[in-house]
């Protein structure tokens, strides 16, 4: 009699993630504060332009959203592990609300506005790293964590589509300073949701060293691990190439003579593809399948950009961007590997470093795309990003495979949560 074939474990669904009470609070807080942040970016850029009349200064307000991530992600990363997570998250929200509140003061100098913008940006990686690290305590370190992380990314992409439109409409009705008050309200609402919708848990580590020294030591420990380092690069490097079409969307829309409507479509195509890819992979594919396709997908993640060499019109350009966005489903597999690879006592610092590097390298990628386009043109720059990015991603995927096959004997032991039990008994915080 033939042996019975083992039944595969059932695939976790997004519905199971939403069944966790604390995750619902995290999800709502994330959506609120993210929409508020997008409104603040639009409002602040308009306000700075009104005060200075300088397009450069207006653009600088967006750039300052990327650059301070390096500071917060390296010098302040230790906060994520040495203080209770709920306290860190609520404090970050309130600090961001205070910074934006200062921006609303009549007569605030341009230097004050930009300084407060830097303050929000420096706090953001600490908040995001703490949220991701504690998400494993809410959902476990298995498939529910991956889907929870996916949902937060989907909210982020959706907020880009909705937030910029709402921000534009809002500024037609109220002044930029009054619009900023909405951001103050969303940060405060997020803080309340996290304070009363999540449980308190102790810090992961003690405060044995000064904060900056502890943060830098943690970054060195994280980067010293070959497996973790390879996964970090797989998160970071494709993003540097992926932002090229977004950075050059305005001049490309001008080349195509498609006007503001065409520019809007070009800006929306990549997020729409990303949402579709994440939803399909999260809802239809089993965890093992997501991990199996992660490296092949990352190798072709930016390859559709090579199609720009054909001088595509608007329709084909949108198809290429949608295809590139859909390949970002590889991040679900990387999330699972990353949370397995990082020791629990370093998880907050590792997640903070991940977020800081991701935002910083996107800013670098946008700047590089602009510089190259000055000499090579928009189409050649985007196509070059697709080809060069694909080659680099193949090399990184090979390194990730080697690091998996040859784990380092010096890697610290991991004391991870053993399962993803129902959130009613197994909760923590996050946004």
Key descriptive features of the protein:
75% helix, Growth Hormone, Chain: A, 431 residues, disordered C terminus, globular, disordered N terminus
Description:
- The protein has 19 helices and no strands.
- The longest helix is centred in the N-terminal third of the chain and has 32 residues.
- It folds into two domains: 183 residues, Growth Hormone, Chain: A (Up-down Bundle); 186 residues, Growth Hormone, Chain: A (Up-down Bundle), CATH 1.20.1250.
- The protein is mostly helical and 431 residues long.
- It starts with 13 loop residues before the first helix and ends in a 26-residue tail after the last helix.
Evaluate the radius of gyration.
21 Å
Label the structural class: mainly alpha
Could you say how many structural domains there are in total?
2
- Reading off the top of the CATH hierarchy, the class of the largest domain is best stated as Mainly Alpha
Strand percentage lies at under 5%
CATH topology of the largest domain: Growth Hormone, Chain: A
Q: What's the name of the CATH homologous superfamily of the largest domain?
A: MFS general substrate transporter like domains
Q: What separation lies between the terminal Cα atoms? A: 53 Å
Largest sheet: none
Please identify, by name, the CATH architecture of the largest domain.
Up-down Bundle
Total beta-strand segments: 0
Total helix count? 19
The percent of residues in helical segments reads over 70%
Mean pLDDT reading: 84
- From the spread of the alpha carbons, the general shape counts as globular
